[in-house]
Amino acid sequence: MKSGKDYIGLGVGAIIHDGAGRVLLLKRAESLDASRSTVGLWSNPGGEVEFGETVEAAALREAREELGVEIEIEQTIGCSDQILPKSRVHWHLVAFLARIARGEPRIMEPEKSDDLAWFDVSALPENCGIHHVIVPLRQLGWISEEEAGRRIERTPES
Fold first, then answer.
1. Would you say domain 9-153 falls under CATH 3.90.550.10?
2. Phi and psi dihedrals of 72, rounded to 5?
3. pLDDT averaged per 10 residues, the chain (length 158)
4. How far apart are CA 88 and CA 101, in angstroms?
């Protein structure tokens, strides 16, 4: 049985910011399993919540595993559902706002991510993950409803 496919998956993500209007994003590797919805997209560190783990602990673990940093969660941004009818994928996602507490970010899992960069929120790359980046930034009020809508409209249903 596969989470997100055979039953609704529970995932987390951290919008890591620097306090100066920039967010840290990872570019998901093209070599990822093609069934994953984030292949080739800029996304935030995150992943599946493990059995017995809180959503906060999962976000801390994912930042450590993917970036080699310790983060401090500042707030819960909100939740969203990533439902891709054609692919029969459904994830419930919890997003957090965080800052780096210790360490320098680096790619720790090159099989999953092949680049990382800080982006000004006003100059995000066009190929950002909708549910992982755009929706949480809209929930924070860091991007406009119009900008979020423009990006969502251009995203093909999977």
1. no
2. -115, 120
3. 82 98 94 64 95 98 98 97 86 97 97 95 92 94 91 64
4. 37
Q: Which two tokens stand for residue 144?
A: 């406009």
Residue for token pair 């069934």: 35
Amino acid code (one letter) for 1 = M
Report CA-CA distances (Å) from 81 to 8, 12, 42, 130, 152: 10, 11, 18, 11, 14
Residue 4 is encoded by which pair of tokens? 């997100």
Domain boundaries, the chain: 9-153
At 37 the pLDDT is: 60
**CA pair distance 142, 7, nearest whole angstrom:** 32
Please compute Rg for the chain using Cα positions. 15
